[in-house]
Protein: Ribose-5-phosphate isomerase
Organism: Pterulicium gracile
Amino acid sequence: MLLSLKRVSLTFRRYTSTMPLPSYSSTPLPPPLSTHPSADDGKPKIDMEGGSLPSPEASKSSVEQAKRFAAWEAVDRHVLPSHKIIGIGSGSTVPYVVERIVQQGDERNKDRVFLPTGFQSRELIVSSGLNLGDVDQYPTIDVTLDGADEVDHKLNCIKGGGACHLREKVLAEAAKTFILVADYRKNVQYLGTNFKPGVPIEVVPFAYAKVLQNLRHILDCPKANLRMAVAKAGPVVTDNGNFIIDAPFDQERMKEPYTIMAQIKMLTGVVEVGLFCHMAQAAYFGNEDGSVTARRVDELPEVIPAKTQ
Ligand SMILES: O=C[C@H](O)[C@H](O)[C@H](O)COP(=O)(O)O
């Protein structure tokens, strides 16, 4: 018991890390993936070269390694041989999920169908040689694995840093099991601790000004703003042709994310809110030392020691 508490406090110290989070614009587009036999474990590995997956150099950084360890642990525990319909999330951590699924082998994957949460994950699925489907064909999913911008102590999370949260929420809701994977910087007591841009909100384009006005004046979020594109003039346009508003609420209000989510969702013109409350069954956070912290609702965190991969 004492040992577990010590681990918990060690883990929580790590949560307060103030390392900067990646900005939206740094979210890479997906590269073509190919697999090749690995010299070390004999399993196929995704070739990270070229395009949008992390480069081999980048993937050696402690943050990238943390993402990989979290993703691999989650796949090993939750993508079971009986699972045939699998949801694949978006972002820079999810490629490591796909990497590990590919390592499960052709025999296991040949009868499976993988459902994407957007353009990026669709490309990941196709270029990894996995079978592509969509949630309109398979509205019940065995397991969905996805990244997160931040996860609180109750496994509520902020998603949508890459503007994919509408489709992500549909696939999370459709899944019998919804699992989060992230690096240690995302593991916090309360949302908004490290992730500062605010709650991502997908809105119908013609309603954006009204939603902004309502966020600022009715929901008292004066810094709510339209997300602008980086290598394009004008706003970010989602895979669904909508705009994104980022709404930073103060820390006190972020302690009740469900209330904020419900209030935002009531605004006319809002399509979906990037707050996922009471949805995830478990979250896996890769740590700097190679260990992985696994968290489940209402349970003490489990620290899985670093493995020789
Ligand atoms: O819209 C993007 C998604 O919600 C991502 O899952 C989220 O931003 C986390 O991405 P990353 O794994 O790159 O931190």
Summary: The chain has two domains: 2-189+277-304, 199-274. DSSP finds nine helices and 16 strands in the chain. The first strand starts at residue 35 and ends at 37. Residues 27, 89-93, 146-149, 159-165, 168 surround ribose-5-phosphate (CB under 6 Å).
